Amino acid sequence: MVGVSLNKLCLRYFRCFKQFDLEGIDQPVAIIGQNGTGKTTILEAISLLSPGRGIRSAPSKSIHTVNTEGQWKVSAELTTGETERLWVDTYCDPGQTRRVSLCDKGIQQVKLNEVIKILWISPAMDRIWNDSPESRRKFLDRIAMSLFPDHPTQANRYLKALKERNLLLRDQIINNSWYNSLEERMAEYGSVLTQNRLQTLEYITDSLLQSQQEVVPALKLIHPEPRNQPIISASKEILMEAWQAMRTKEIQARRTLDGPHRMDLEVIYTKKGMPAKLCSTGEQKILLLAIVMAAARVLKHQLGMPPILLFDEFVAHLDQANRKLLVDEIKHMQLQVWMTSTETEVFRKLAQDFVIFEAPKFTLNLS
Fold first, then answer.
1. Fewer C-beta neighbours within 10 Å, C or N terminus of the chain?
2. 3 state SS of 185
3. Is 138 exposed, middle or buried (0-12, 13-18, 19+ CB in 10 A)?
């Protein structure tokens, strides 16, 4: 039995599944099958039990089964602690936004973060260190959201004020009182965002150092290019001063050039003193895994809420030594992890620790 587990999953008109039911699970899960058999779809459904667009970042209106226009729905029974059971539903009607209920009572999507923590690694994240800063911010913010439930709310408020300021800049309006008012709001929310990010990196760094793992990346929050300077303060005053100093330049550029919406996550592979973006593909994957597992340790030990982990087509790319280290840590922390692979042999050796399902029939196989 793991600390937090998903024991029952029901999908209705969700992508390739008109109906899919899975129950009686409280162990790590491995799903094996060829491409196109719905492995990632199951992980996506689970990821939507947390705030946001899930592992595929897909709009809710695009998720329903092909050739249907009705409601899609994901239902799950969760066990937390020893005996508490919770029922979570998330669903979307045609033309509507996604809705959420907890034990048949409607709640805000962001409230899911107080019930369950979900972290993932997907194929889309393979090149995260070489991708745009936005992809690294999203990665960091998902972890920060797990640690600080108000993080998405503060982000939405900041982005709303940022949008209003960018409209003034776009139209090249010169009105200091309007800018001052918006910048004060942006700084209020932006300082919380920045502090959450800095605190998240501090927690992860401490966890990495205490774990005595061979791979220990150094993490920094930095300003966008060309400054590329480390961010060490989340002061509201510093943010406001920066925007006021940049105002003339930003009116000419017609957009806000600096702030929490432009920050980047810098990762250094300390063993080689090399930025993650210059590391080999294998090293980049290990760095990504090290950060996610460090975040899992923080959630378990500091919040007492071990996350559910989703690894989509990831474990097969690890060498045997790192695969064993990962499985040992999952067992040690009593985490429920859902993994997928097209390679049967990857999980055959893990049968004693995992519940194994074979797509497309998803027949329970414990041998």
1. C
2. helix
3. middle
Say what the pTM is: 0.93
The tokens describing 173, both together, are 């309006």
Determine the 3-state secondary structure of 268 from DSSP: strand
Cβ distance 2 to 306 under 8 Å? Answer: yes
Question: pLDDT above 90 covers what percent of the chain?
Answer: 67
Q: What are the φ/ψ torsions at residue 217 (nearest 5 degrees)? A: -75, 150
Which tokens belong to 303?
Answer: 């919040």
Helix%, strand%, coil% for the chain, nearest 5: 45, 25, 35
Asked if 77 and 86 touch (Cβ cutoff 8 Å), the reply is: yes
Which contiguous run of DSSP H or E holds residue 101?
A: strand 99-102
pLDDT for the residue 3: 62
CA distance 69 to 64: 7
Asked if 113 contacts 50 with a C-beta cutoff of 8 angstroms, the reply is yes
40 half-sphere exposure, CB direction, 13 A CA radius: 17
Q: Residue 316 in contact with residue 323, Cβ under 8 Å?
A: no
Long-range contacts of 83-89 (CB under 8 A, 24+ apart): 85/7, 86/115, 88/49, 88/112, 88/115, 88/116
State the DSSP H helix or E strand holding residue 6, giving kind and residue range, or none if neither: strand 4-14
